[in-house]
Amino acid sequence: MTRQASRILLLGGTGDALKLARGLDARHVYSLAGLARVPQDLACTVRVGGFGGSEGLVRYIADEGIGLVVDATHPYAARISANAAAASRMAYIPYWALRRAPWAPQVGDDWRFVDDWAELVAALAPFERPLFTLGREPLAHLHEIPSHQYWTIRCLDAHEGNERARVIDARGPFTQEGERRLFDACAIDVVLSKNSGGAATEAKLEVARERSLPIIMLQRPPLPDADRAFDDPAALAHALQTLS
To answer: Its domain of life (predicted)?
Structure first.
């Protein structure tokens, strides 16, 4: 490995990032923000927690001899990505990123795009039995559920619901058959989703399509440019291996 890429810092928290981490040896670092489950079977170092913004990340890069930052965080982790790009520029090292291709509606799909929570709530108003697949954000709004709605919220962490909400802690990949059972059990009439892309959670879109259900889709935030951007995890994994 060259001096420039003597040590890799992989910013993760997604399934794709974990697969990349499994290809790294003990020289390298896999960093998690702290919300994901910490893997116990990796050869590389696993670091949990924030860096203190871009300036803290610059210090970490210098202290740990990092020569390449690889951003494989969630497409909606915009602040982390912005800090990683800025820190890499300040440290004069490359910034690579996995930019997973977004999903796209097919002919006949009823996708309703929104930019923030306020727009999402307005779009949700006509429905009664939504399925939220937005991560943790709906948990902060359990006290705001309208009287005509019952929410089903699926996220990674266990959380108590209430009389108007059920919270399901589950991690993909999800199958179409499993999603059909969930939609039936909860009488889902609309799906709320981030446009995360990838196959692991795409089954909900297929089932919504089968049933002609609308999808309220939260638009992706803008992400910083990368020195090298990959839309295929396998291609990124290969590129990392060529550095060895």
So the answer is: Bacteria
d(C-alpha 173, C-alpha 213), whole Å: 21
Q: Which of 167, 137, 142, 160 is nearest to 35 (CA)?
A: 137
Q: Which helix (H) or strand (E) holds 98?
A: strand 95-98
Q: Evaluate whether 25 touches 8 at the Cβ level (below 8 Å).
A: no
**pLDDT tens digit sequence for 88-107:** 999 999 999 999 899 999 99
Domains and CATH numbers, the chain: 8-101+222-242 (3.40.50.720), 111-218 (3.40.50)
Token couple for 215 = 């999808």
Enter the pTM of the model.
0.85
Least confident of 9-23, 32-46, 60-74, 104-118: 32-46
Residue (of 6, 72, 12) closest to 235 by Cα position: 72
Q: Does 37 have pLDDT greater than 90?
A: no
Secondary structure (3-state) at 87: helix
Angle between helices 53-64 and 78-91 (to 10 degrees): 50
